[in-house]
Design goal:
The protein has 669 residues and is α+β, with helices and mostly antiparallel strands. It has a domain at 371-664: Beta-galactosidase, Chain A, domain 5.
Length: 669
């Protein structure tokens, strides 16, 4: 590649044709043409062979949808989106911008210079949408627009010669992999016979694809990025047989993707970043490569099948009663059924996959209900698989490999058809207060110490990551109760000062003691390393509209909907504050309402139980979900703050007292 190039592609004609397998039928005349300096003929011979050997009827057997909220308006169809794209209006990260004349692929029109806008602009989903309209209409205006976009991009965006994978605005390796595994292949197979896709344009296209292969092979990264990068590299190896290096690239990409199933996927099936969002990114990229392999009769490694089944099983076992996944770390509240489109055919023996995919119309739910992911550290507690079942998630796991939140010992609750305890969620990857909030302990249902957040990030080192390390969650499940427990001892505040160890135990009383319905006891034990007084704040984000508090009790009372009551004992000095949409003195009481999108968040009522004490202390909290029209029968609870205490008393409205000793429910690892 020429370092003196000022416009792309960097490859000269001579360098490019040296990388082509000219023993292929139709390409034998290229060496002589190149030797004579007749690159017009060489380009024509190459383009003719490509047009003759491309197989769109085979390629378009692959199912792929390029609709998405990040690059389309919510009310758009592919037809209206294509019309917008024709007029130079592009959308990246849900923010539209109209370019006058040629697109500036380095532009950033966002109000706060959100870097992802420029990076993701070069994912080019618009090219696939234009291709879809072209195949439907054969209207050359779509081909003309596509060629204009492509030539503008390839001339402006020079492939870097030695930049790391995360550097540059147009050539981050994640975008390079996404382009090669998606929009570019759909565009090529849509437009290759258009008169606007001339021999010169086609050769520039193949030059740029070769540059993609070279960059992906030599500058790839780790984690979910690597899966996207290797998917793109493998597809180049399959779909571009004219390149001499195509077989080696394909072999390398497949070997890496096989290895990564043991490097990135825990033995319990969860992808190592421990997010319900990037877990799907990994699944989708394996599936897209499988689809290409099947279309072109390329053998699919058996390891793919085994790894994919484990990851699909994780989605099923995590699923909330409403069919969605919980939004943990940089995750999403996505529905599980659409994620199993190919899985029901790939694993016909899995009745539970079919049951989820058909939303209960066929198949059978899993035989087990509550489930611990012993490596990922997520404990899922549930009464069953019906839509009105009670479900909860307890996070006792490690920090994860990427996209982490400071949320260990976090808790979510879904009951009687409604999410009752929520969290800050996932927000755009910018530098806003909302982004900092969703990453923090403040945005989760756990405890802050001395007004400081957890700070695992301070001492986290990726090189110490161990996919085979168990999370250390204590776990027991029976027909009448579930118990999960874990500890956080990795420090609070900017310096991650290890001043307090927080041990949390969740007891799910599935049948409820005596006169009570199913409910949860959250038992927090806080052990300081010194004799100084410490300030604690237990946080609960309620997914409700109408909420009220009194003394040590808070409850929602949304009409005709399930509700939640949260009660703690009357500890000395304990205060209860209810906030919603607070920005000063610090952000609190918010939730993101659209995944990754700037400005898309709303207030949510958040209960803050705060107190200060010296020495070890125990706090017991009752979480009591109620069906529509019902009220919590418990008025208050008694539970000694002594850290060694095990007694708990429920005081009912009629004056009855129900006693529980937490130690009578045995634990095991």
């Amino acid at each position: 590649m020429s370092p003196e190039s000022t416009t792309g592609p960097r490859l000269s004609d001579a360098d490019f044709f040296a990388k082509i397998d000219t023993t292929r039928p139709g390409l034998e005349g290229i060496p002589a043409a190149v030797a004579q300096g007749n690159f017009v003929t060489a380009r024509h011979l190459f383009a003719a062979e490509v047009r003759h050997t491309l197989q769109p009827e085979r390629f378009f057997r692959i199912s792929r949808d390029f609709r998405g909220a990040n690059w389309m308006r919510t009310d758009e169809t592919p037809r209206t989106a294509a019309r917008r794209i024709l007029h130079g209006e592009l959308i990246s990260c849900s923010t539209p911008y109209t370019f006058e004349g040629e697109v500036d692929w380095f532009a950033n029109p966002t109000f706060n210079q959100y870097k992802e806008w420029t990076w993701q602009l070069s994912r080019h989903p618009e090219w696939a949408l234009l291709g879809e309209r072209y195949r439907e209409t054969q209207d050359e205006k779509y081909a003309e627009a596509f060629v204009r976009y492509f030539t503008g991009w390839v001339h402006q965006a020079l492939v870097p010669e030695d930049a790391p994978g995360g550097a540059t605005l147009c050539w981050r390796t994640i975008e390079a992999g996404i382009r090669m595994a998606g929009s570019w292949q759909w565009a090529l197979h849509s437009f290759y016979i258009s008169p606007h896709f001339t021999d010169d344009v086609l050769v520039d296209w193949y030059k740029s694809v070769w540059e993609h292969g070279w960059r992906l092979r030599n500058f790839h990264r780790t984690g979910n990025w690597l899966i996207m990068e290797m998917n793109g590299l493998a597809q180049i190896g399959i779909l571009y047989p004219q390149f001499k290096e195509a077989p080696a690239w394909k072999t390398y990409a497949f070997e890496r993707m096989i290895e990564e199933l043991d490097i990135q996927v825990y033995p319990d099936g969860f992808q190592c970043e421990l997010t319900t969002g990037y877990h799907q990114v990994v699944i989708r990229n394996y599936q897209w490569l499988i689809d290409v392999c099947n279309a072109y009769k390329v053998p699919v490694p058996s390891a793919f099948r085994d790894g994919m089944e484990r990851m699909h099983t994780t989605n099923v076992m995590m699923m909330m009663p409403d069919g969605r996944l919980p939004d943990v770390n940089d995750g999403s509240w996505g529905e599980v059924a659409p994620l199993l489109v190919q899985a029901v055919d790939a694993y016909p023996e899995r009745d539970d996959f079919r049951w989820v995919y058909t939303r209960g119309a066929e198949g059978h739910p899993p035989a087990i209900t509550s489930h611990l992911f012993p490596y990922a550290g997520y404990a899922i507690m549930r009464t069953g698989w019906r839509p009105d079942a009670i479900w909860a998630l307890f996070d006792g796991g490690p920090f994860g490999y990427g996209h982490q939140h400071e949320d260990k010992l976090h808790f979510l609750l879904h009951a009687y058809g409604r999410l009752l305890l929520t969290e800050g969620g996932n927000y755009a990857y910018d530098d806003s207060e909302m982004r900092r909030y969703v990453l923090s302990t403040q945005a989760h249902n756990t405890i802050r110490v001395d007004e400081q957040d957890q700070n695992r990030r301070r001492h986290y080192r990726r090189e110490n990551f161990d996919i085979h390390a168990r999370a250390g969650v204590e776990w027991q499940t029976t027909d009448t109760y579930d118990i999960a427990a874990a500890a956080y001892d990795e420090g609070y505040g900017p310096e991650a000062a290890r001043v307090v160890t927080h041990h949390r135990k969740i007891i799910f009383l599935k049948q409820g003691p005596a006169l009570l319905d199913p409910c949860f006891l959250v038992i927090d034990r806080l052990t300081p390393t010194d004799q100084a007084p410490h300030h604690y704040q237990a946080i609960w984000h309620l997914n409700a509209h109408a909420v009220e508090k009194n003394s040590a009790r808070v409850h929602s009372f949304d009409c005709d909907r399930p509700n939640l009551t949260v009660i703690t004992p009357h500890l000395p000095g304990l205060s209860l504050t209810l906030v919603s949409g607070q920005k000063t003195p610090e952000w609190q009481g918010w939730k993101a309402i659209k995944n990754h999108q700037q400005g898309e968040y709303t207030p949510t009522p958040t209960a803050l139980f705060a107190w200060e004490t010296q020495g070890p202390v125990r706090l017991v909290t009752l979480l009591y979900p109620t069906r529509p029209g019902q009220t919590c029968p418990v008025t208050h609870i008694h539970a000694s703050p002594a850290i060694s205490a095990t007694d708990i008393q429920f005081i009912l409205a009629e004056g009855d007292i129900i006693k529980i000793d937490e130690e009578k429910l045995e634990m095991r690892d």
